Amino acid sequence: MDLQTELVIVGGGLAGFCAALEAARAGHEVILLEKQAETGGSSAMSGGCLAFAGTDLQRANGIEDSSELLFNDLREVGQFENDEALVRVYADKQLDTYEWLKQAGVQFGGHIEASSGQSVPRVHNVDPADTVRIIAARARETGKVRVLASTAAQRLIRNAASGRVEGVTVLQDGEAFSVRGRLGVLLASGGFCRNAELVHRYAPQYDAAVFIGGEGNVGDGLKMAWQIGADNRDMIYIKGTYGKHPTDETNHHSCLAVYKGAIAVNQDGRRFVDESISYKLLGDACIRQPYGATYQILDRKILESGDNLTRILDLERRLEEGLMIEADTLEQLAALIEVPAQALLDTVNAYNGYVSAGSDPEFGRQHLVHQYGDLVRIEQGPFYAYPSTAAVFGTYCGLCIDPGMRVLDVYGDALEGLYAAGEIVGGLHGAAYMTGTALGKAAIFGRVAARTAMAAASREAA
To answer: Residue 332: which CATH number?
Structure first.
């Protein structure tokens, strides 16, 4: 049952299908392998945010943005630990990919919000599962993309003479066979948030965290690449995302009331962090608090300022779901969440004073989120508390790649015939994370990887 094609893609999330569609539209045959019975993976489970700059939606909302500002924000939020060349690829290719997604039929919500790491609002909202389905449908419509579900890639196949990666061995219904591609293999198999052993190896502080992601995200692609000498990066920057309700098992999304003006307090009723920083850094701060559990404290005005089109900012929906704790006074709220009442009162009063004075001497908070938004006082009852911990939604680290998405070995040389895109790669995010860049890099880097594979084949043919 050995199969032959032009490009082999491992992983049926957004990165894999964007790469498949890009290659197919250029006339190339593709076989896409998906270990699970259904495609979509972590992409379909995400919050549906993509970070784009300079779009028509931003202009319609009166927002001035640019690729250069996006580039600068990405470098800054990543604390300059990210790969400048990869950040440049994202910034330079993002607007074209936004238009490409729209032309493929992806629907973006009309309202734009600001979130983690953004100096201006640039969260472009989609239904994530629908987005993957739409791109997958466009790929299948070309007649050049064959999807093999319930088919797990096992090992990479290299040419015995040249060492070039030319396929993978796979397992389907207990039967092993090979899938070979003239253009090579593109790994888009996601991260490893479902592999507790691997997470512990790099981030033992998150052993007790909540883990949410595609069931197949156990690091298969990483291990296959590591076996042939691939290098990795950013492994020390695995972080949990702040704002996950610690006991709710039906809502898999974070709630970021802090980005609309709430404060975060621990079990002692005290603030512990600048609430405007990346929610990955907030996750680090949270997990160090007693029991790894905290509360976001807000009032009615902040609740009503939420955005029902952006899942992480849909505050009233969380109230309707019974996840917000509500009280008429801060004293009553303190009793309900079992924190010292006087401590909570003192914390809120001190914070309100900082807002009025225009300076936060405790933690240096200046904006709602990153460099955007004026701080607001917490004073209009009823008051609310949202129990919050850190959840590992994705690992945001992985294989070293060059700007063409070629996988690099431990000496910095390209492993010929091997490409990677999406969550499996490191280098873009660095020390923290901007909302929307996980789905964003899946689409952008998936397309770039396919183009590089096609260009390499053309050069060889010439």
So the answer is: 3.90.700.10
Total-model pTM = 0.90
Per the CB < 8 A criterion, the answer to whether 118 and 3 are in contact is no
State the number of CA atoms in the 13 A half-sphere of 363 facing the CB.
Answer: 19
Q: What is the dihedral of CA 43, 47, 48, 54, to 10 degrees?
A: -120
How would you write the pLDDT of the chain (462 residues) with one tens digit per residue? Answer: 799 999 999 999 999 999 999 999 999 999 999 999 999 999 988 889 999 999 999 999 999 999 999 999 999 999 999 999 999 999 999 999 999 999 999 999 988 989 999 999 999 999 999 999 999 999 999 999 999 999 999 999 999 999 999 999 999 999 999 999 999 999 999 999 999 899 999 999 888 788 888 888 999 999 999 999 999 999 999 988 899 999 887 777 889 999 999 999 999 999 999 999 999 899 999 999 998 899 999 999 999 999 887 888 999 999 999 999 999 999 999 999 999 999 999 999 999 999 999 999 999 999 999 989 999 999 999 999 999 999 888 898 999 999 999 999 999 999 999 999 999 999 999 999 999 999 999 999 999 999 999 998 777 765
Q: Provide the CATH number for the domain around residue 161.
A: 3.50.50.60
Co-location of 177 and 299 in the same domain: no
Q: How many domains does the chain have?
A: 2
Dig out the tokens for 61 from the structure. Answer: 């909302």
Domain residues for the domain of 156 are: 3-236+394-461
